[in-house]
Amino acid sequence: MFKALFDPESPFGRGMEKVWQLIILNVLWLVCSLPIVTLGAASTALHAVLFELLRGEEVRIVRRFFAAFRENWKRATVAWLVLLAAIALCLFDWRFATLMESFLWKLVAVAGFQIVGLMCTFLFALLARYENTARNHLRNALLLGVGNLPRLLLVWLVWSGPVLLTIWSAETLHFMILLWLMVGYSGLSLAALRILQPVFDRLDGGNQKEGE
What we know:
By secondary structure, this protein is mainly α. The protein has helices at 2-5, 11-33, 39-54, 61-100, 103-129, 134-147, 149-168, 170-203. Helices cover 84% and strands 0% of the residues.
């Protein structure tokens, strides 16, 4: 019984292999995102690997991650720095609104954060999957978010559960930090890609990268 359970070809064995792949991918993403400026390239590389895993391909996680990191470095970094500047502006607006006790400026800041979140939901997957300029990827991420609101909101709902558990209490915080370090971003990104897969399926007649 136990021999069958731990057989690499058994459902349990295949499931554990996928979990291990997500753990490796999450650690790579965390390490490569530490400088902050590299977060865009790291997130794009993570999504490139996830797309291949979703297609059931045999993937050498570490090698493929760093290959995708190098391939997308320039465009992903430019796109991420634009979003980072937008985040900084939203934070400034929120701080200004708090100091001035302005409800209108708070609404502007919240709207800005929502637009950034909407674009981030699609941006790194687009960068990983399609050839385009950073500018066009940013525009397309915005258009896809607006045009696929039900799926966008479902992705946000999936992400909100772990986030709420993280801030719920000191006890859940300790557990969730460990989970985030092990498999948090890679696991949630995989779930998001499964939800958004029909969107990308409709786009695949366009400028998908060679080999996709």
